[in-house]
């Protein structure tokens, strides 16, 4: 009897909670699944907005444009949730408010940085991490030097 | 009923015991505190004709009215925004009485927020689902990133403020120590007889590193609080010395929201509280120098500093120094959260601090301000505030 070769070790299953998707933000999360980082701007007056919403707060246009964002930003605020340990993380994540180059802000994670190396206003760039249910979410790491 | 402008006053306050396990339903807590507020005022619960609570209170108006035997309910309303609703309930009650629409408005908030569910823990499925009316539209954008608790949202909100002004976690400890000193001498407080030192604060575990420790956070509590609002004229004939609602307002500026509040221009200030302050001072003709005490929503210690600054009790960035030099103490510039606040007395979503404002004006607080005559008290829940005054 021949020995069966060991099956390749499957990558660990993601434990991060999947985003809760509402109608007006579906484009954002659908794009994230494909590792695209999109923002929403007004189809008429061209101003960015976040969170996504059906009407422009400036000119009240219903025309929406979904545009590719630079993926660059700065750490505007941050915290390390210690207690209770948040669901879905083996080690405490670094939660950040990222201020994007386009002027909007969102909550995300800073990944690949030691806790003591987090700095207010440090430059970061987007990449994607998997979640439960085969989704992906945009997260950030220190911006590579070449920019 | 006349429809002319009618001054409003607080005629009754009531509360249950504050505990970690009430052993009875939230509806029962609501009924007990409502009855206590009516007894305090000296009216029959049958004569309540307006009812106000928070959107997220679990008791139903009709069920509570059935407990109290309310004969003819003319007006009901609920306030969004979690704890930001606390002072807004007084605002709406004032407006209903001012407009001549109601005679006896009952405000209540009752919850088993320790024994039945816990705001401080990771959310369950029901709490994670989007619920409109809570005023917290973008919480869903925090959850996949591990920001799942009010402390995490509050820390993110405070981080830039603390960074800009160099406020350390140790600085925040002075807020906790003062509030626990007040709680220690307040028999109603959960932490009655249990003061803390700055070292106790510094030795408590990190909840949100490097901003908030356990002793920077409000409690989780079971209990109920109620307030009975009526016209000033009627209140004069009731059991207690009336407390006039000199002014009350709410302010939700563009791009602000409750707690996941990261989208307005300058995160080192609280524009909602600044807006409340502006309107309140205009409405009453008073200013920070005219307040002899304040009750300020303290879900987390940094938000006390931000509100002290927003209301003009000190300049931007000077909140920590104000507290460290004893500004919140009974003999300080502004005795603040004299019940022990939400960290020392209990967390009934801010309402227990609202009624402490009434007690200071009646002269019945366990930590009564005596160094000066209490004429005006500010009560604030960030997005709403009221100035209560001696009638």
UniProtKB/TrEMBL annotation, chain A:
Gene3D superfamilies: 6.10.30.10. Residues 29-61 form the ChsH2 rubredoxin-like zinc ribbon domain. Residues 66-128 form the ChsH2 C-terminal OB-fold domain. It comes from the Bacteria. InterPro entries: ChsH2_C, ChsH2_Znr, NA-bd_OB-fold, Thioester_dehydratase-like. Coiled coil: none annotated. This is OB-fold protein. It comes from Panacagrimonas perspica.
From TrEMBL, chain B:
Pfam families: Thiolase_C_1 (PF22691). Keywords: Transferase. Residues 264-374 form the Thiolase C-terminal domain. CDD domains: SCP-x_thiolase (cd00829). GO terms for molecular function: acetyl-CoA C-acyltransferase activity. SUPFAM superfamilies: Thiolase-like. It comes from the Bacteria. Coiled coil: none annotated. It comes from Panacagrimonas perspica. NCBIfam families: PRK07855.1. This is Acetyl-CoA acetyltransferase.
């Amino acid at each position: 009897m021949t020995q069966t070769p060991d099956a390749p070790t499957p990558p660990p299953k993601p434990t991060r909670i999947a985003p809760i998707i509402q109608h007006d933000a579906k484009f954002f999360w659908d794009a994230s699944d494909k590792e695209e980082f999109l923002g929403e701007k007004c189809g008429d007056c061209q101003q960015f907005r976040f969170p996504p919403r059906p009407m422009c707060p400036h000119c009240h246009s219903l025309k929406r444009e979904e545009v590719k964002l630079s993926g660059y930003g700065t750490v505007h605020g941050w915290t390390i949730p210690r207690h209770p340990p948040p669901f879905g993380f083996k080690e405490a994540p670094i939660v950040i408010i990222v201020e994007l180059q386009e002027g909007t802000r969102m909550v995300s994670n800073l990944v690949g940085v030691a806790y003591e190396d987090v700095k207010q206003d440090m430059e970061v760039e987007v990449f994607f991490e998997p979640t439960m249910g085969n989704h992906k979410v945009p997260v950030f790491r220190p911006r590579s030097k070449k920019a | 009923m006349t429809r002319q402008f009618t001054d409003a006053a607080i005629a009754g306050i009531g509360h249950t015991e504050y505990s970690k396990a009430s052993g009875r339903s939230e509806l029962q807590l609501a009924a007990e505190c409502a009855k206590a507020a009516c007894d305090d005022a000296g009216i029959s619960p049958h004569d309540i004709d307006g009812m106000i609570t928070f959107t997220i209170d679990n008791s139903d108006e009709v069920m509570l009215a059935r407990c109290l035997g309310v004969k003819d309910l003319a007006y009901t309303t609920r306030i969004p925004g979690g704890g930001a609703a606390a002072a807004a309930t007084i605002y709406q009650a004032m407006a209903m009485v001012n407009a001549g629409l109601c005679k006896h408005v009952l405000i209540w908030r009752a919850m088993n927020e320790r024994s039945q569910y816990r705001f401080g823990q990771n959310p369950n499925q029901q709490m994670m689902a989007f619920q409109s009316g809570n005023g917290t539209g973008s919480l869903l954008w925090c959850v996949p990133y591990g920001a799942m608790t009010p402390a995490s949202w509050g820390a993110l909100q405070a981080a830039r403020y603390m960074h800009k002004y160099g406020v350390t976690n140790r600085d925040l400890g002075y807020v906790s120590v003062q509030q626990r000193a007040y709680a220690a001498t307040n028999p109603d407080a959960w932490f009655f007889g249990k003061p803390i030192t700055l070292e106790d604060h510094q030795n408590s575990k990190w909840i949100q590193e490097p901003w908030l420790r356990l002793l920077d956070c409000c409690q989780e509590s079971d209990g109920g609080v109620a307030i009975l609002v009526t016209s000033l004229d009627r209140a004069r004939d009731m059991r207690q010395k009336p407390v006039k609602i000199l002014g009350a307002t709410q302010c939700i500026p563009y791009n602000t929201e409750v707690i996941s509040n990261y989208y307005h221009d300058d995160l080192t200030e609280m524009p909602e509280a600044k807006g409340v302050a502006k309107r309140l001072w205009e409405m009453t003709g008073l200013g920070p120098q005219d307040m002899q005490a304040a009750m300020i929503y303290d879900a987390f210690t940094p938000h006390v500093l931000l509100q002290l600054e927003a209301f003009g009790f000190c300049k931007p960035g000077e909140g920590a120094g104000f507290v460290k030099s004893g500004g919140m103490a009974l003999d300080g510039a502004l005795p603040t959260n004299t019940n022990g606040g939400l960290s020392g007395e209990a967390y009934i979503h801010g309402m227990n601090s609202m009624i402490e404002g009434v007690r200071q004006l009646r002269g019945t607080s366990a930590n009564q301000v005596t160094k000066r005559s209490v004429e005006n008290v500010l009560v604030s829940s960030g997005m709403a505030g009221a100035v209560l005054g001696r009638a």
